[in-house]
Amino acid sequence: MKLDRYDLKILEILAEDGRITKSRLAEAINLSVSPCWERVRRLEKAGIIEGYGARLNSRMVVRRTPVWVQIELKSHHAGDFQRFEAEVMATPEVTECVAVGGGVDYLIKVEAETIDAYQRLIDGWLMSEIGIQRYFTYIVTKTVKHTAPPIELACD
Predict the structure, then answer these.
(1) What are the helix and strand counts (H, E) for the chain?
(2) Which residues of the chain are modeled with pLDDT < 70?
(3) What pLDDT was estimated at residue 59?
(4) Quick one: CATH architecture of 5-45?
(5) Do 131 and 85 contact (CB within 8 A), yes or no?
(6) In the chain, which segments carry CATH 3.30.70.920?
(7) Topology of domain 58-139, per CATH?
(8) What is the 3-state secondary structure (H, E, C) of 105-125?
(9) What is the pLDDT of residue 33?
(10) Helix axes 22-29, 33-45, angle to 10 degrees
(11) Which residues on neighbouring strands pair with residue 38, listed in sequence order?
């Protein structure tokens, strides 16, 4: 789907304020309400807008210790990756997981109640033999930046 400047502006505004009214959104992009809202619906239907929600300060709701973990698997067969990824998907403390290249297989963000709880999770994974060869733990001391990429990057 080709996005024009109106679409990009709509996405930028909605990413910042998903509760904006139809009329304020239309005014902000200099279109009338109906064409503006048709564009929003088209972006939703195309799956570009996946949904609307509130940004929560999770530290205000539940106290967790963020830990980043590098994981290297023992074997690199499709079934090994599937088994490990299934375990990650079934672990609620894992809030982010990406497969990466360059000598490490996965980077995982774990939000544990305590460092001890994190270590118990890792120990359980090691005992369950889901294929972990080696892991490296990085305790987060401060989040410096956490944002979505700017919409204007879509123009490149």
Answers:
(1) 6, 4
(2) 58-59, 62, 152-156
(3) 67
(4) Orthogonal Bundle (1.10)
(5) no
(6) 58-139
(7) Alpha-Beta Plaits (3.30.70)
(8) CEEEEEEECCHHHHHHHHHHH
(9) 95
(10) 100
(11) none
